[in-house]
Structures
1.
Amino acid sequence: MKRKRLTAGEKSLKASLDSATYNGVEVAEATFDNLHAQLLKNAHDHISKIDEPEFFVVWVRAGDPLLHNVRRYKIYSYPHLPSPRPEQAVFLYIKAQDSLTRIWSLPPAKIMAAISEASVVDKKWAKTKRWCDAFFDGKLWELARTEQKFNHLSEYEYLNANREKLIKAGCKEGSPVGAEPFDFSKISTNQVVNSQATVL
C-alpha cells in the first residue's frame, strides 16, 4: 500500500511542535545541497521549449500566506532576463556548454537593505552589495549585462524594442488581465489544523 504524503499544513504543524534547536548553517547547506542538479534538470527540461542558444534559470524563495513557518522554492526557466526581486537567484544557461553561470543572487529584503546601506562590507559580501545597490537604483539589468558581457534583454525591454513589429505581426495591445485574489472568506475555523496559531 502506498504511504500517504504529508500535506504542507501537516508538515507546518509538525514543525511548529518541534522544540529542537537547529544549526542555521546546516539547514542552509541541506537546502542547497543539490540545487545545482535541480537547476540543470530544469534547464534540460526546457532545452527544446526555449528556442535560444542561451536562456535563464531562476530560483525563487517565497513564504506562504497561510502557513507562517513554510517556505516554498520554485525553479523555472525564462527566455529573457527576469525582473529582479528579493530572495531570487538567476543563472544563465548556455546550451552549447551545458553550463550555468550565476548572474545575481539577492537575499531577503531586510538583508538587502542592510547590505546596501552599509558603506563597507566584508569581502565575501562585495558582489551581493553591488547587486543590492543596483537593485535599489533600478539598474540591475544593466549591471548584469556589464558584468557578464552579454546583451540579453528583459521581457519588458524586448517587448518595447519590438513593439511595432509585434503589432504588425498580429499581436494585440491590451492591459494584462489581473490575477484573481484568494478569497479568505472560504476558509472556516474548523478547517484550520493548528487553531492555537490562528487569530480570529
Note: Residues 52 and 79 are 7 Å apart (CA to CA).
2.
Amino acid sequence: MTKTQYLLLVCGMAIVISLATMLGASQVNLFGIVILLIGVYFFSVKYNVGNGVVKVLIALIVYILIVTIISFLSTMKNILPDFGLYVLQSDLDLETNNVDLNPVTNTLNTITTVSSDQIKQPEFYKYTYAFSVYSKGGGNNLDYSSRYLFCRKDDACPSSPTLANHGRNIGLRLDTNQKLHLDYATTSDGNTTFKTVPVQTTIFPPNQWTKIVVTVDKTVINVYIDETIVTKQIGDKNLKQPSARTPIEFGNMPAHLANFSHSSSVIPPTPSFIQYLSKTDGIVVA
C-alpha cells in the first residue's frame, strides 16, 4: 500500500467516524480517534511499517489502552472541566435523609453528608455551590433545623442552636411557609454572628425542578435561581470563611436534590451551566 493509498484510507475512516460520531453526539471520540489514526500513520512512515494488518493492530492496541485508561479515570470523582465543578452528590432524596427506621429494609436510614476531605479547598473564601432541587411542598411541621437543602456548620456553632443562632456558616433552607432563606456567618473582633435573610419573597415553586447557584466571593454572596440574573446579593465585609473541618450537610424535608456540585472558585451561571444543572430527566421523584 502506498502512502497515498494509506492516506486515502485514513481519510475514509475519518469520514466514517465523523458520521458515526455526529449520530452519537460525541465529539471527544471523534477528535481522539482522528488523532490516533494520524499518529499511527506517521509512526508507520517513520519506522517503515508497510504491512496494513500490522498498522491496524497497532491502532487497535493503542485504542484499547486509551479506552482502558479513560475507563479507569472515569471511576474516580467526577469533575466538570468546563466549569471547574466537582459533583459531590448526583442524586439525593431529602425525604428519606433521616435516622428513622426504614420499613422496607428494617434498618436505620443514614443522614447523607459530604466530608471536608472531599471538598476542594474546604476553607477557601471563594467558592460556588450549584444544584437542582425538586420541592414537593408541605412538611410544615418539620423543625427549621431539618429544612436545609444544604449547609455547613460553623466552628462557633453552639451545642444547641436556636432559630436566632442557628450556627451555620452557609446554608439554604425552606421555612414553614415554603420561602427560601440564606443563612451565613460573619466575624468581627473574634466574635461570630449568625445571620439569616430571605432570598425570595414568593413561595418556592413546588413540583418542578429549580436550578440554584450560590457564589461566595470573599465579602459578597450571590444567589441565582433558574436564570443568570442575581436573585439575591448580600455584601458584608465581615463575611466569615468556612471551616476546614466541617462537612456539607443535607436536611430532611419533602424535596429532591440533583447534581449537587462545588467549586473552589466563583462561577456565575452561564446558559450551558444552567443546561447541565437541568439534566434531571433520569431521576424519578416519588
Note: Residues 52-74 form the longest helix (23 residues).
3.
Amino acid sequence: MEKKKLGEIIGIVITVLAVLVGIYLYWQSRKPAEPISPGTITDSATQGTLPSIGEAANPLSSKPDLNPADKANPFDSIKTNPFE
C-alpha cells in the first residue's frame, strides 16, 4: 500500500512540474504586442476595397447657384456698417 501511494505522489509531482515548465516556456516565447496606430488600421482596412473614382462621382460639383440672397443682397458693396 505504501508503494502505491508513493507512486501516486511522484506521478502528481511530475505532472505538476511538467505543467509549470510548459507554462514557463509559453510565457518566455510570447512576444509583446506592438502598438498599432489608428492610421495603420484605417489604411489596412480600406486598402483595395474602394476604387479611385475621382471627380466623376460627384454630381453636385458643378451645381448652379440657387441662393437668392447672393444675387439680391443690397449690402454687398458696402464696406462699413450702415447702422452705426
Note: The chain has a mean pLDDT of 78.
4.
Amino acid sequence: MGEGAQDDHLETLKAVYARVCNERDRLRDARGHFARGLGPAPASAGIATALVAAFGGGKNELLLGLAAAGLFLMVLVSIWYDGKPAYRHLYTDRLDQVPPDSLAPQAWYRAMIDLEKDIYGAPRGRNRSGPPWKEVNDLQDGVDLERTGLRVVQVLWVVVVGLLVTAAVI
C-alpha cells in the first residue's frame, strides 16, 4: 500500500472511530437521561404522600397505607434499576482489550474501534425491557434497563397519586 493510500486508510479509521465514539456518547447521554428520572419521582411521590397524610384529614388510612407502600416500592425499584454499571465500569472490565499506545496508528484505531463496539454491544432491532436483576453487559443493556426502570417508577408514581387522590376524597 502506498503512502497516500495508507494516509487515506488512517483517515478512514479515524472517521470510523469518531462515528463509533459519537454513538457511544449518544447512549451514555440516553442512560443519563433515564437514570436522572429515577430519583425525582419517588421524592415527589413522598412529598405528595406526606402532604395528603398531614392535611388530608386521614379519611382513608388503608389507602394512605397503600400509597406509602407504593412509595416504598418506588424507592426500591428506583435504587435497583439505577445501580447498573456505567460506561467506566464496562470499559474497566475490558482493560485487557485496550491497545498499548505503542501500536502503529492504524492498528491502534482498529483495536479501539473493536473495543468501543464491544462496549456498545451487538446491533439490536428494538429495545428490550428487563427485570432489575438482569445483568448489564454493554451500553445498550444499560439504556434498556434504565428506560424500563423509569417506566416502572412512573407507573408506580401514577398509582401512588391515584391512591392519594382517592384517599383524600373518600
Note: The chain has a mean pLDDT of 87.
